[in-house]
Amino acid sequence: MNRINTAFAALKANIKTALIPFITAGDPSIESTLPTMHALAAAGADVIELGVPFSDPMADGPVIQRSSERALAKGMSMRKVLAIVAEFRKTNATTPVVLMGYANPVEAMGQQAFVHAAADAGVDGVLVVDYPPEEADDFAAMLSVRDLSPIFLLAPTSTPERIAHVARLARGYVYYVSLRGVTGAGHLDVAEVASNVAAIKAVVPVPVGVGFGIRDGATARKVAQHADAVVIGSALVQTMLDAPAADVATRAGAWLADVRKALDA
Questions:
Q1: Which of 4, 23, 124, 245 is the most exposed place for a label (fewest CB within 10 A)?
Q2: pLDDT of 62-71, one tens digit each?
Q3: Which helix (H) or strand (E) holds 86?
Q4: Long-range contact set of residues 217-220: C-beta below 8 Å, sequence gap at least 24
Q5: Is this prediction's pTM over 0.85?
Q6: How do residues 75-128 score in pLDDT, each as one tens digit?
Q7: Is the backbone peptide bond immediately before 53 cis, with ω within 30 degrees of 0?
Q8: Are the C-beta atoms of 19 and 11 separated by less than 8 Å?
Q9: Residue 49 is a catalytic residue
Q10: Is 130 an active-site residue?
């Protein structure tokens, strides 16, 4: 069974909400990414979303945009991201890893070659922001053959037709974008999130995670009352950037542990 499915089944049995941190591979340094992944797993991450840096991350706000720029400037690439995942798997065989990014790096490698390389490295799911579900049937099928979960975004503006299409293709979980904006934006309307997530759950058979606008444990706990998972990225990326170089992983783990404590309270 795919590690994502195993993780969510265990969480459901224990009536817990999944905590999914996002970090950008290669930021604030290439050397910090692997120890940070281990620190996040130890701090209670149920899934790790690992961002593949891209030069034009259209869905991301300034914090994650700049993290991509820094990672690319240091030489981070898709193949190096996969090498980090493979290294992570040498000592962590249980925490699911989802690659989140954009179509260009996947297309540059070739979809089929990417799928095989990702599966061989130990990736569990793939979210490509700019692959619309209506055009992703073949890619989703390639992923499923290698037991990788195709993960899709849904938003407050998603039509019933798009939600239905995602329901047919999605595995692992879906990622509900809680705001009409980019990552890191504010003004989270929990009542609207609750209503929209309920509507999605009525159609989509996999767990629903909520991200964008979740900044801390208190916000995560409010959203967790309505979602199967909370995804938190910009605040964590900023925490890592602000940490001394030698303490990036430790600070990231401590920060996430506080969020985990709030979720489980």
A1: 245
A2: 899 999 999 9
A3: helix 78-89
A4: 217/258, 217/259, 217/261, 217/262, 217/263, 218/262, 219/188, 220/19, 220/259, 220/262, 220/263
A5: yes
A6: 999 999 999 999 999 999 999 999 999 999 999 999 999 999 999 999 999 999
A7: no
A8: no
A9: yes
A10: no
The token pair that represents 80 in the structure block: 């190096």
Please enumerate in sequence order all residues whose Cβ is within 8 A of that of 180, keeping only pairs 6 or more positions apart, or say none. Answer: 155, 156, 157
229 neighbors 173 (Cβ within 8 angstroms)? yes
Q: Which of 27, 46, 49, 124 is catalytic?
A: 49
Catalytic residue from among 27, 60, 124, 228? 60
* Token pair of 204 as six digits: 């989509």
Supply the mean pLDDT for the chain: 94
- d(CA 121, CA 112) in angstroms, rounded, equals 14
The letter for the amino acid at 18 is A
